[in-house]
Amino acid sequence: MSNIYIQEPPTEGKVLLTTTLGDIDIELWSREAPKACRNFVQLCLEGYYNGTIFHRVIKDFIAQGGDPTGTGEGGESVYGKPFRNEIHTRLRFVRRGLVAMANTGKEDNESQFFFTLGPTQELQGKHTVFGKVSGDTIYNLIKVNDIHTDSNDRPVEPPKIKKTEVLSNPFDDIIPREVVRPEKKEHKPKKSHSKGKKDFKLLSFGEEAEEDEELNNKVVETMRSKGKSAHDLTDDPRLSSTTGNVESVEPEEVKEISQEVSSQVHEELRQSSISPKESIHRVHPNLQLEELRNERKALQREVKGVKNKAETKSIENESKTSISKAVEEFNREKKEFLQKKKQIPKKGSSKRELETLALLDKFRSKLNSAQRLAEEHSESKVKDNSAPASSNKDGDDEEETDEGW
């Protein structure tokens, strides 16, 4: 068994299925089966499998689910159409706990998947293996073998997937789609608007209460049509219940009153020593200051704009001059190179051979001159070393002659 686990490639991604049998952890082979894993992860993120059942169970063989209709004939992929199988040589149906896509052909994979409950080598090359059940959750999967099924391999009490959770998403670019689901309408009982009737028979004084109730109803009905004012409710002698008569004012009188008021206003303005302009300035003394400040700010902005333009122009001119100098140097060097290139004879010509021989002669002459200089330098060193030795000998002879004397 360990050899089988060693041969399987490493996983990348993990999904948790919460079922009625317990939790089931699924590790994904997202490198070996990218399409199937992407389809499975996105459907889990969208909650597509929530509430679905395992509609087909064959003991020690497979447990199939992933169909929202629960019939085994439904399901859709995230690609909008069925996708092809992804067969890998290192992923084989040799043990229980593998997760693969259910299909009816090579290019018929959608949303349905199944778990293997044992070795199923007859399915090799026909279905895409994209995951495996990990950890101790394999024992929750094995409980499927104890479920009773009918003659069509359909469980009598099918296990259900409660919810799905993506613990490790190998695809960071997946964006779950907005799934529009029909809302369940709750049938609320209608409230009855009929008024309740009082049962006076239950009271010991029922007859008296019933008579009072009838009188109250009659009074309410009579008072609904009539409106009452403070004159009716209070006995105040200062308030009169008769309607007041307002004297009508003619439009000519209104015009005369308005003219008189306007003339009075004009006379008051004439008498006042302050003109309307001066009054405006006195009421709003800060208007001129604000205008001057705004003008100063506008002038400062214009000056800054002119300076910036001048600076940009100077920078552009400097860059142009530097570029022109560089171009001139490049052109000059190019011309020199072309002239030197023209002087060099072509390959295979006699001039070319003569030039190479001349260059060799120059090199030899340089070597000879260097050797001569080295010899002359060594000779001069030898002479310098021999000169003091001879002087020492002469001094010794003189000392001997002096002693002889």
- The CATH topology of the domain at 2-168 is Cyclophilin
Oligomer: single chain
Class derived from helix and strand content: alpha+beta
**What is the CA-atom radius of gyration, in angstroms?**
56 Å
Helix-strand pattern, N to C? HEEHEEEEEHEHHHHHH
Shape: flat
Tell me, rounded to a whole number, the average pLDDT: 79
Taken as a percent bin, the fraction of beta residues is 5-15%
CATH class of the domain at 2-168: Mainly Beta
Helix content: 40-55%
Low-confidence region ranges: 279-283, 398-405
Family: Belongs to the cyclophilin-type PPIase family.
Region (Disordered): 173-205, 224-324, 369-405
Biased composition (Basic and acidic residues): 174-186, 224-238, 290-319, 373-384
Biased composition (Acidic residues): 395-405
Question: What is this structure's SSE topology?
Answer:
Elements: H1 2-7, E1 14-19, E2 22-28, H2 34-45, E3 56-58, E4 62-65, E5 98-101, E6 113-116, E7 129-133, H3 138-142, E8 161-168, H4 206-225, H5 230-233, H6 251-271, H7 276-283, H8 287-343, H9 350-404
Antiparallel strand pairs: 1-2, 1-8, 2-7, 3-4, 4-6, 5-6, 5-7
Keywords: Nucleus
Biased composition (Basic and acidic residues): 174-186, 224-238, 290-319, 373-384
Region (Disordered): 173-205, 224-324, 369-405
Your description of this structure?
This protein has a domain at 2-168: Beta Barrel (Cyclophilin), CATH 2.40.100.10. Strands 3-4-6-5-7-2-1-8 form an eight-stranded antiparallel beta sheet. The chain has nine helices and eight strands. With 405 residues, the protein is of the alpha+beta class.
